[in-house]
Design a protein that fits this description.
40% helix; globular
Length: 183
Amino acid sequence: GKVFLDNHNIMDLSKKSIRDNVVLINQFPYIFDMTIRENIKLAKPNATDKEILKACKDANLYDYVMSLPQGLDTKLGENGVKMSGGEKQRLAIARALIKNTRIIIFDESTSSLDNASQAEVTKAIAKLSGKHTIIIVAHRLSTITNADQLLLFEEGKLSGAGTHSELANNHSYYKQLLSKMNT
């Protein structure tokens, strides 16, 4: 019934402290009718181009940005109409990274992506390992098999915890989910 961040009850922390340390990337990130640079700088207005390009590299967005004739100055259209779903997600990841929070929450961030886009986003998430605490909320099991710790919920209640292989070998409900994934 309680959430702790570094042994501090979240209820005892200020909104600013939480906002400075936690960022959320959801299933449908909003992309503003601005340039790539401006979209990323929303999270850190004083970010340098060097920082922005590093965030793009870490988010697996760099090659896409560099392929555009106007690069960072490319205007994206309302809600990123000129981008694919995977490119939007990787831009949202770059925007989160520029903020340099300690905790990044991915809420169903790959559920609406095709397999190729999911693979690119998954690579971007893997690059963050060891640098941030990453929480991934997912129904698509292929997104989470490499996680250090899985928490399995059944009918809204925690029913298991462990690595992918531990749950695959020892948890009947997880085995059922895996068998459905493979059929």
